[in-house]
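Pipeline run #58 for the internal structure catalog. This entry was flagged by the ingest filter as a single-chain record with no existing model, so it goes straight to prediction. Upstream metadata was stripped on purpose; only the residue string is passed forward. Reviewer on rotation: M.T. Logging verbosity set to normal.
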Amino acid sequence: MKAHLAIVGAKSLIGEAIADGLVRRGWKEGLHLLDAGDAVGDMVEAGRRSLAVDDVAGFDFSRTAVVLFADESLAAAYADKAQTAGCAVIGFGAAFEGDVPLVVAELNPEAIAGRRIAVPGNTATLLAVALAPLARVAGLQRLNLFGCEAVTEQGQDGVEELGRQSADLLGFRKVQQRVFPAQIAFNLLPDDGVSELRLVGELERLFPGASVNATLAQAPVFFGSTFAVHLEMSEALSLEQAATALRAAGVVLAEKPGAPSAVGEGSGSDQIHVGRLRPDPSHSHGLDLWIVGDNIRRGIALNSIQIAEILLKEHL
């Protein structure tokens, strides 16, 4: 087995989070950081290490076993090349559509097969990890949710626009928008419908037989997405049973007022946090809960890492 990994798009927010997660999980050798353009030659801080970024265009993919794509455009350009060289490839976007299995490691690891694995968007992953233990116990019929997503959905450009607009407003200056269609600082913007449709499609693939309704909004926070979720289960599920199932799966249940929040528990953590667990008074098998998680670190990076670890251990 070639125990080497490559991250393509290593200077993106997702790529940096994957690199940091791998180093924190003990990956010390055989890690190749790749990117294109101005990112080549830069350094990525991962754990307590500084790792150099090499040019993906000149990389020999036969040197590695698994390639994690953190950039959709680079995946479109290089996923086929990596797979032809014998690599297993993991990523998102158009290069991972079609019949490629969609995997959340903590929900359907049995779907990890072949040499190309698709990861869902971070919102679908956060929700799937939180809801999987409940679905296993009582079955999931319907999911209705409202989600507030962090600006890191738009990458570094989203971070910079929120920071710049916040500073301008606090300095009594007029704001300008380039990334978002309206002012994002101190504001809440509705989704254009595209992300909602993608989320519904991913969740219905991950939870076959369940119907999904989603409303998303862009929130003025850097990291951490928040969801108000209303479930209709196939069977009655008490709060005690639900709490036990969540804790057994590693989900953290909040026990103090005002928690969990995106800025508090939902940023910089590998864990999913749940609060306001309560029965739905309008449905005999209904359950309501509040879910928070780091959209980059937990929603994309950790799932990609877990899939790579399973591939290396069981399939390569």
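catalog note: The first helix runs from residue 13 to 24.
catalog note: The mean pLDDT is 93.
status: ready for reviewer M.T.
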